Amino acid sequence: MPNEVKDDSKQSKATIYDVADHAGVAISTVSRVLNDSDDVADQTRDKVLGAIQELQFRPNRTAKSLAQRSTRTIAVALPTFTTPFHNELLKGVRDRLDDEDVDLLLSDLEWEAPIHTLRNFLDGGAMDGLLLVGVTPDEELAEELAMLGGPVVLVGAELDNFDSFYWEDVSGAKLGVTHLIDQGYHQIGVITTPHNNRIRNERVAGYRQALEEAGIEFDSDLVVHGHTSKHDGFSEESGYEAMQDLIALDKPVEAAFASSDVQAIGAWQALREEGLEVPDDFAFVGYDDIKVSRFIGLSSVAQNMHEVGNVGTDLLLDRLEKRGPEHYISRLVEPELHIRKSSQRPQ
């Protein structure tokens, strides 16, 4: 009988959690051993090192690379870098790095499984610092990020023991819808995404709050979305499809709040095809305030992504140089409504 060849590629690679379980210690203890901390008893250190050897655990090479390279590398990981929304953030990052001797590494995490893609990226890449956009780490992922050996700045999420820039989408949506109400509109739809996520839920909640505080009854028929799943439903195609459904309702809809500017742009095209003009026949407020919105006259709730990319990168560089604030920064970025022609009721 021929010798059986063992296929190591099918074996699961040992993780820090496996090492901790095998040694009978906490993950934080394994972390201290890997970082050569003095705050570990010799007997415990021997147990951990023995478990590492036995399991053939290989620590993420990111931390090892820190002392081996003269040029620093900053990574930006985000759901996609092909949308105008994320492009605004990347422009802010790029502008801040213009005069720095720093390499920029990008990772497209993809909308379908961002955390899985991120783990693969962290395992295979070498970086000095990470700007993580649009992902809310769970407890396990937070532990892995803490093991990187370099600073991590979160954008779009707030978490203890990390620098964070985040938004409160309820108030942002409420701001946009309240403006439409102040313009005299009462039959207001909301264009959202079919996916049940935090952004979708908070923006619909803000829409509903604005209506109810103005004494306008919430109508679930006016909550519409397209079926195109590209970019998690935040696309021109999805907005176009949603507006077709809104127009088809047997209700006199006068205005709409779109959960993103790109959806509003697609919806605007659907109105044109029906012979409806903005704002003469229909009013719009979008979300994100991407660059093109300023040129087509689309009112929009701004999240100041360029500034966040710039300031977030600046903070990352400060952390790399061991300077800056002593404590972690947790900054709520206040939404701003930029009023343009699309939402102003004709006199």
Can you put this structure into words, describing what you see?
The protein is of the alpha/beta class and 347 residues long. The protein has 3 domains: 8-59, lambda repressor-like DNA-binding domains (434 Repressor (Amino-terminal Domain), Orthogonal Bundle), CATH 1.10.260; 63-167 and 306-335, 3-Layer(aba) Sandwich (Rossmann fold); 169-302, Rossmann fold (3-Layer(aba) Sandwich), CATH 3.40.50.2300. The protein is built from 13 helices and 12 strands. Strands 2-1-3-4-5-11 form a 6-stranded parallel sheet. A 6-stranded mixed sheet has the order 7-6-8-9-10-12, with helices on both faces. Helix 8 (169-182) packs parallel to helix 9 and helix 10 packs across helix 11 (261-273). The N and C termini lie far apart (90 Å). The model is unreliable at 1-11 and 61-70 (pLDDT under 50).
Q: What structural keywords apply?
A:
Rossmann fold; 6-stranded mixed β-sheet; alpha/beta; 347 residues; 13 helices; elongated; 42% helix; 434 Repressor (Amino-terminal Domain); single chain; 3 domains; 6-stranded parallel β-sheet
CATH class of the largest domain: Alpha Beta
CATH topology of the largest domain, by name, is Rossmann fold
What number of structural domains do the residues give? 3
Overall helicity: 40-55%
* Total of helices: 13
The fraction of residues in strands falls at 15-25%
Distance between the termini: 90 Å
Count of β-strands? 12
**Secondary-structure element order, N to C:** HHHHEHEHEHEEHEHEHEHEHEHEE
Looking across the biggest beta sheet, what order are the strands in? 2-1-3-4-5-11
Shape annotation = elongated
Structural class: alpha/beta
Going by CATH, the architecture of the largest domain would be: 3-Layer(aba) Sandwich
Low-confidence segments: 1-11, 61-70
Integer average pLDDT = 85
